[in-house]
TrEMBL record:
GO cellular component assignments: cytosol
GO terms, molecular function: hydrolase activity, acting on carbon-nitrogen (but not peptide) bonds, in cyclic amides; hydrolase activity, acting on carbon-nitrogen (but not peptide) bonds, in linear amides
Protein name, UniProt field: Dihydroorotase
Record InterPro entries: Amidohydro_3, D-aminoacylase_insert_dom_sf, Metal-dep_hydrolase_composite, Metal_Hydrolase, Metallo-dep_Hydrolases_sf
Superkingdom of origin organism: Bacteria
Amidohydrolase domain mapped to chain residues: 54-525
Pfam families the UniProt entry points to: Amidohydro_3
Source organism per UniProt: Microbispora rosea
PANTHER family given in the database record: COLLAPSIN RESPONSE MEDIATOR PROTEIN, HYDRANTOINASE/DIHYDROPYRIMIDINASE FAMILY MEMBER
Length: 541
């Protein structure tokens, strides 16, 4: 044992497992010791039978870095507390082995905003998250709010461009004036300096969609100065996905920021198969030396809000303005026409697919609609689907979550297999209803279905996509790899049984095969059950 810490100094020993260290290198037998929240890799068999406060036997199991979920919408879920159904939702992430969540995606975060915009923002986030999660002037305020709520795993946040824009201009459909853009840059700069992970956009969602390319270039240049990425939900993931990817490439080139494409997909019947063009484009850019990556979730269905199925003009002015328009039959007819004919620059999910591919995930006051498609609801009511959607939005005060069955398996597999694609759940943990099962199943599903059953990825490759690759992209120093001195975030799983069990009807069922999870050197999951320990932190990057 010469040259190693005394085994008796370890708080925890994980013994007898196959170490898959997160770098992509082949797994090897090794023991892992944890002391004061840091790792030591021990040659196999050298760890004595005693000498640690706690021992986890890992024979036949894989010991990997804790998973980094690079794409979540979990910004506020722990702030809801148990009263908001928070605990069941919160648990789902850590039970699948996630030790760090990155929120603030798709242009939506809980900060920043000018002080005078905070009350309006707080009202919006109360609706979005199904409870009072607050709104914060900057990353420091967000981190302080989270510091008061114990959590099992760690949380990092991007700065959402839509939030930033609404936090300066309000939710309005017009270009930012030069002084407003300067203010947006200053707020972004401050939050990035405090530790936010990068800049995200959601260019299909209002109010982010009201921004032109130049505005985003100016903001991405601020991220570039901090060495942080530009992370984007493209302006179109359907029939115009290639043009939208070109816009993102232009933003990255002009700003100097690294580009990360969120939940890359080519959805809707006109775009199926288009990953055969987008992925070679990204690969060619990488070969030229451009820093471009993406993430993906292992499902052919997406999830978003029902209001995003309506044309952008319908959402101009925010929720109150939308609700007023939905009450006007003439405006409804105009929405119907926009969906049938399309609007330049608008993704138009329903026009690309149909109301039969859109099912209700969460409508708290109308649970009988959950799990049914808008087309089914319309048929049984003898009504037009747009009217059914509009009535539901009005009755739910604008907040209805949907699941959109919009992709084909071949595209999902191509993206999963891309060597620069990491794993992100895109989970939307909101109380009530039937959320997309990806929040509880993403990581075990990749390991069970795409590694073990289909052989699409090697185990080490898949783990790298969930750990080392993700940590490198988002600047999670000392995480995502198992090596001496690294942070002790770990997962122990059974490669023979690991599998997702969450489904569209039972979306929060915990996975099989995830045995133990360690965050910050503390065991937070043992034998597949939460221990109740809460060592998680907000990470300032
Ligand atoms: Zn998104």
């Amino acid at each position: 044992m010469s040259g190693l810490d005394l085994p008796s100094g370890f708080d925890l020993l994980i013994r007898g497992g196959l170490l898959v260290d997160g770098t992509g290198r082949p797994g090897r037998p090794a023991d892992v010791g944890v002391a004061a929240g840091r790792l030591t890799v021990l040659p196999p068999g050298e760890a004595p039978r005693t000498g640690a406060a706690e021992v986890i036997e890992a024979r036949g199991r894989v010991v990997a870095p804790g998973f980094v979920d690079v794409h979540t919408h979990s910004d506020g879920v722990t702030l809801l507390g148990a009263s908001g159904g928070g605990s069941t939702l919160v648990r789902a992430s850590v039970l699948q082995g996630v030790t760090t969540e990155i929120c603030g995606n798709c242009g939506s975060s809980l900060f920043p905003a000018l002080p005078e915009r905070l009350p309006a923002m707080r009202a919006e986030t109360r609706i979005t998250f199904g409870g009072d999660v607050g709104a914060y002037a900057d990353f420091a305020g967000f981190a302080a709010a989270h510091a008061g709520v114990p959590r099992a795993n760690h949380l990092a946040s991007l700065v959402g461009h839509g939030t930033l824009r609404a936090g300066v201009l309000g939710p309005v459909d017009r270009p930012a004036r030069p002084d407003e853009l300067r203010t947006m840059c200053a707020l972004l700069d401050a939050s990035l300096a405090q530790g936010a992970a990068g800049l995200s956009t959601g260019l299909i969602y209002t109010p982010g969609s009201y921004a032109g390319t130049d505005e985003v270039v100016a903001l991405a240049a601020v991220a570039a100065r901090h060495g942080k990425p530009y992370v984007t939900h493209l302006r179109d993931e359907m029939s115009r996905v290639e043009e939208a990817l070109e816009e993102a490439i232009e933003i990255s080139r002009r700003s100097g920021a690294a580009l990360h494409v969120s939940h890359h997909k080519t959805a809707g019947r006109y775009a199926w198969g288009r990953t055969e063009r987008t992925l070679p484009r990204i690969a060619a850019l990488r070969a030229e030396g451009m820093d471009v990556t993406c993430d993906v979730y292992p499902y052919t269905a997406g999830s978003t809000v029902l209001a995003a199925m309506l044309p952008p003009w319908a959402n101009d002015g925010g929720l109150a303005a939308l609700t007023a328009r939905l009450g006007d039959p003439a405006q409804r007819d105009r929405m119907r026409r926009s969906i049938a004919e399309g609007v330049p620059g608008w993704e138009n999910t329903v026009g690309n697919g149909g109301w039969d591919r859109i099912s209700v995930a969460c409508a708290p006051r109308h649970p009988q609609t959950e799990g049914r498609t808008i087309a089914e609801l319309a048929a049984s009511a003898g009504a037009d689907p747009l009217d059914v959607a509009a009535d539901l939005l009005v009755a739910e005060a604008g907040e209805v979550t949907i699941i959109s069955h919009s992709m084909v398996e071949e595209d999902v597999r191509r993206v999963l297999a891309a060597p620069y694609a990491m794993i992100g759940s895109d989970g939307v943990p909101k109380p009530g209803g039937r959320p997309h099962p990806r929040w509880a199943g993403t990581f075990p599903r990749v390991l069970g279905r795409y590694v073990r059953e289909l052989g699409l990825l090697r185990l080490e490759e898949a783990v790298h996509k969930m750990t080392g690759m993700a940590a490198a992209r988002f600047g999670l120093t000392g995480r995502g790899v198992i090596r001496d001195g690294a942070h002790a975030d770990l997962v122990v799983f059974d490669p023979a049984t690991v599998a997702d069990r969450a489904t569209f009807t039972e979306p929060l069922l915990p996975p099989a095969g995830i045995g133990a999870v360690v965050a910050g050197g503390v065991v937070v999951v043992r034998d597949g059950e939460e221990t109740g320990a809460r060592p998680g932190k907000v990470l300032a990057l």
